[in-house]
Amino acid sequence: xxxxxxxxxxxxxxxxxxxxxxxxxxxxxxxxxxxxxxxxxxxxxxxxxxxxxxxxxxxxxxxxxxxxxxxxxxxxxxxxxxxxxxxxxxxxxxxxxxxxxxxxxxxxxxxxxxxxxxxxxxxxxxxxxxxxxxxxxxxxxxxxxxxxxxxxxxxxxxxxxxxxxxxxxxxxxxxxxxxxxxxxxxxxxxxxxxxxxxxxxxxxxxxxxxxxxxxxxxxxxxxxxxxxxxxxxxxxxxxxxxxxxxxxxxxxxxxxxxxxxxxxxxxxxxxxxxxxxxxxxxxxxxxxxxxxxxxxxxxxxxxxxxxxxxxxxxxxxxxxxxxxxxxxxxxxxxxxxxxxxxxxxxxxxxxxxxxxxxxxxxxxxxxxxxxxxxxxxxxxxxxxxxxxxxxxxxxxxxxxxxxxxxxxxxxxxxxxxxxxxxxxxxxxxxxxxxxxxxxxxxxxxxxxxxxxxxxxxxxxxxxxxxxxxxxxxxxxxxxxxxxxxxxxxxxxxx
Length: 494
Ligand code: BES
Ligand code: MG
Ligand code: ZN
Prior knowledge:
Elements: E1 2-6, E2 16-21, H1 31-42, E3 53-60, E4 63-71, H2 80-96, E5 101-105, H3 114-128, E6 145-150, H4 159-184, H5 192-206, E7 209-213, H6 215-221, H7 224-230, E8 238-245, E9 255-265, H8 274-277, H9 285-299, E10 305-315, E11 327-328, E12 336-337, H10 345-358, E13 364-369, H11 373-379, E14 384-388, H12 391-404, E15 408-410, H13 415-419, E16 428-429, H14 437-446, E17 454-458, E18 464-465, E19 475-476, H15 481-491
Parallel strand pairs: 1-6, 2-4, 2-5, 5-6, 9-10, 9-13, 12-16, 13-17, 14-15
Antiparallel strand pairs: 3-4, 7-8, 8-10, 11-12, 14-17, 18-19
Helix pairs in contact: 2-3, 3-4, 4-9, 5-9, 7-10, 9-15, 10-14, 12-15
The structure holds ligand BES, magnesium ion and zinc ion.
Magnesium ion binds next to loops.
């Protein structure tokens, strides 16, 4: 548990202190510390350069304290992500030193609003503290941590706003944590039915409506593409629908969120090699992000209508499984030639897109999916790949992602690429050949968006990490919950 306070303690009372500084702008009133820092500068031990860290222990008025100095780089180059990354780094140091009562000195700058900084620091601290030890017999004993933001000249910001910024940070981080937990759950524990129950629970807790449709209902809707993928599994597919109506005045305006929900992807008969399959419990990262974002949106009572849809199933091998060469239908009526059973995500998404358009009547769609290994090849683990049919909506996603630090970049969607997914004997084929794999996968899903403004986020590279980076630990990252939340907030009440 992490608890936050504001000005509730002075720096002098806590066992650990984080002091962030800009490069060459190290201002310190306190005499003794001032001397110390001047010395560190002179000896080139700490200059406030980005990521530079120095720690020491001191005694003040009988209290022994660990002080961590952390560099933020040049003030004019500061952004929220730099703050998050470096506050996280300093906090990790204090954790190592076993400090649980921590003061964070506020960052003074005209470049970013104080409330934004508070929110970002709260998110970074909460997420740095995340662990997934549910399945460990012996759990590391996790001490409660108390964080106090101090040393802030807050005459320009109301106490209420300060509290609200911290609370908002907590609510966002909590959505990210929910997404991480869902991704980290193994597929034997988290299959479609369990995911459905879990979302129902979350809906009750956070205040959104949940409907879970089973096999029969999915058949009635004619979701043949979705059902074809699910056929090889003994676990029944579920269509999970989340509805949050925060803006009753504009009931017709609805943001749609579609998340890929493969609770496991073996590849089917186009079987994955062992190493690639090992992390495929994470193939519901898009679903997890939609669910996490729904909780944050509802918790913050955003004035917006948001519908989330997840077509949850498993891609498995069985006598009844779908096969390479099969031609299948879809809810939209388009026929699809399945040339690779491992390109299953786009088939489930195709029907989820049609459903959210025709049954839930959304006016725009953001669709999130761990869709292609090619996204990793193109953009690596730090940037989400975007494909869109609407540049305005896409630009908005890009600028929000810059703000949240969950980077995203648009790929081209020229007409030529659409040729690559046309089938000789059906309307579409589910693979587009060796090249431009992320684009053709996205465009396949786009065929089912039709005229509705749509942005596709391929998070195959960003939803999961094998090594801990900054405030993201190993495993599910919870990307891009924060971006979806901020996008919804930006559109709220517009
Ligand atoms: N779930 C995978 C994509 C993936 C790969 C996610 C690596 C996370 C990390 C998806 O279902 C898949 O298998 N895609 C194929 C598509 C191909 C057959 C056109 C791929 O990327 O190889
Ligand atoms: Mg696959
Ligand atoms: Zn997949």
